[in-house]
Amino acid sequence: MPPHPFPPLPRRLAALLLAACALGAGSAGAADDYAEVQRLQGAGQTQEALELADKYIAAHPRDPQMRFIKANVLGRTGKPDEAQAILLQLTRDYPELAEPWNNLAVLYAGRGQLGQAREALQNALRIQPDYATALENLGDVQAREALQSLQRARQHGAGDPKLPAKIEALQGQWGDNARPAQ
Q1: Distances, alpha carbon 40 to alpha carbons 2, 29, 49, 86, 132, in Å
Q2: Distance CA 103, CA 100 (A)
Q3: At residue 27, does pLDDT exceed 70?
Q4: Which sign does the torsion angle of CA 142, 144, 147, 153 carry?
Q5: Using an 8 Å Cβ cutoff, are 151 and 167 in contact?
């Protein structure tokens, strides 16, 4: 199974936002704005979703949840560089959050940058060792790395008779050019 695409907003991110709201950094309508951006994106109204997210972020520039949502919208709509920039900034601004690292890993894996994806997932797991989605994604990335190693071994004439069966088993999971769903 390919790495999970951007998961729903995680508990830790929601808790951080609630703490920010308690300090006066958020508004009572924030949850409605989050839901509306996600609804618009789900309805295929990406431009409207991004405009609403940008408007909200302009008023609340340090809001981690809307920035996370915007990165997810961008990642799902073919703008991985913009999504990556937002997620990297979130890792700097909120180093206690594992979720931006997981989503960075999805972007990296989608580009075939498996080493960077693995590192991002390891960062997520250092922060939150029981983060099930990151654990599963790490397993997927490691399996894809194993497939690449086995394919290279075959190209270089490895004589193990079990090699073709190993390759076939892993290819059955994703195929030759697997990319994560976004």
Answers
A1: 26, 16, 5, 20, 28
A2: 5
A3: no
A4: negative
A5: yes
